[in-house]
Design a protein that fits this description.
135 residues; 3 helices; alpha+beta; Thiol Ester Dehydrase, Chain A
Length: 135
């Protein structure tokens, strides 16, 4: 899949006292990009819950912090699905400023039944879209 890119502006609330983005906020930026990736392909998470009784939850995260982002930076957050299983998929993500990678990560996302939180297959309409993009 060609990578999906979502712009994010660093607000004061994203930073520590020194004006540097707090490390956990990179995960928030990545979450937004994954949500927007699904939306880009026509899938709203609240609609998936209502129609399919499925939610997506992060199962594991591997993050590499390289350079700091600062207050008021305009960042790009990418999301590219790199692997798909029956009930999970893995997304490679980067947070960049002017093309320079500040943070990268691999996020494994599980497909869960909304009521029981037990693994269930990724809904077929999402699998169909994933099958049409390069992984």
């Amino acid at each position: 899949m060609s990578e999906f890119v979502w712009p994010v502006r660093v607000y004061y609330e994203d930073t520590d006292h020194g004006g540097v983005v707090y490390y956990a906020n990179y995960l928030r930026f990545m979450e937004r990009a994954r949500t927007e990736l699904l939306r880009h392909y026509g899938f709203e998470q609240d609609q998936l819950i209502a129609d399919e009784k499925v939610i997506f939850a992060v199962r594991s995260v591997e993050v590499d912090y390289r350079r700091p982002a600062r207050f008021n930076d305009l960042l790009e957050v990418s999301a590219r699905i790199i692997q798909r299983g029956g009930a999970s998929f893995t997304v490679h993500q980067e947070v960049r400023r002017n093309g320079e990678v500040l943070c990268s990560g691999k996020v494994k996302v599980a497909s869960l039944e909304a009521g029981t939180l037990r693994p269930v297959p990724i809904p077929q309409q999402i699998v169909s879209v994933m099958d049409t993009i390069e992984i």
